[in-house]
Amino acid sequence: MRTHLIIVGRTGGRAAMKLKHKVLLVIDAIVNLLLGGILLLFPAGFVDLLGLPETSTFFYPSILGAVIFGIGIALLLEFAGSGARVRGLGLGGAIAINLCGGGALLVWLLVVPLALPLRGKIVLWLVALLVLGIGVVEVGAMSWRYEEND
After folding, report:
1. Using CA atoms, how far apart are residues 36 and 77, in angstroms rounded to an integer?
2. How many angstroms separate the Cα of 39 from the Cα of each of 51, 67, 105?
């Protein structure tokens, strides 16, 4: 039995949102909200604790955190806003962001020798694999396609 959430758009057309689509939206949103919140708040001792590269300014990490946090909010809007005819970031966009962001981090980890303690390398590898993994699961689930019901 298929579970669908019916989304009614401005054109009157109806697209079904499957349960796996909703689950992936929420998981992706939670990861983005957590990563974005950590970067946005970016306590000075947090970088040392995780063994991440030091920065001379907190401007760029906090701006990046705000963008990632905003992506999490947009994913939640897509999940929860369908009844109110509100659209957020769909899974197609989330896949692009996850594969680009996770892929860029992976290239840095594989190609550029970063002078980091082991815990920093572990944290960055976990983030890269988590973000890429979510993107791959989303692609594999084909849940970014909407089914049209007439």
Report:
1. 16
2. 14, 10, 15
Sort residue 42 into left (φ over 0), alpha (ψ -120 to 50) or beta: left
Under 8 Å between Cβ of 102 and 80: no
Q: Is residue 59 part of a domain?
A: yes
Q: How far apart are CA 85 and CA 94, in angstroms?
A: 20
Q: How far out from the chain centre does Cα 13 lie? A: 28
Residue 81 lies in a domain: yes
Please state, rounded to an integer, the average pLDDT across all residues of the chain: 77
Q: Is residue 107 part of a domain?
A: yes
Condensed to tens digits (0 to 9), the pLDDT of residues 56-79 reads 777 777 778 788 888 888 888 888
Domain region containing 128: 22-142
Per the DSSP assignment, residues forming a β-bridge with 149 are: 14
Distance between CA atoms of residues 58 and 63, nearest Å: 9
Q: What total number of domains does the chain contain?
A: 1
pTM of the predicted model, to two decimals? 0.69
Residue 123 and residue 21: Cα distance in Å, rounded? 28
Give the pLDDT confidence of 14-55 residue by residue, as tens digits.
Answer: 355 678 888 888 888 999 899 888 877 866 677 777 777 777
